[in-house]
Amino acid sequence: MLFVLVNGKEKSNARVLEYFNLKSSDLPRVSIYDSDSDKKWLMAAGEITTERVRNFCDSFLDGELQ
């Protein structure tokens, strides 16, 4: 799993936000993109904590994300 931080205020990153259907006002958010299936998931909005990110990643790895 690769983690990437994208600065949503940079105009050059606008396409990344567009791809995930996000606006800069939606940030910060955590998302997962699976290149094998070309699918993407957004973690529910809220506080970004180690526990929430770990649970989100574990759910992805266990095939539980819809």
Automatic annotation (TrEMBL):
Organism superkingdom: Eukaryota
Pfam families on file: Thioredoxin_6
Record-given protein name: Uncharacterized protein
Organism: Cirrhinus mrigala
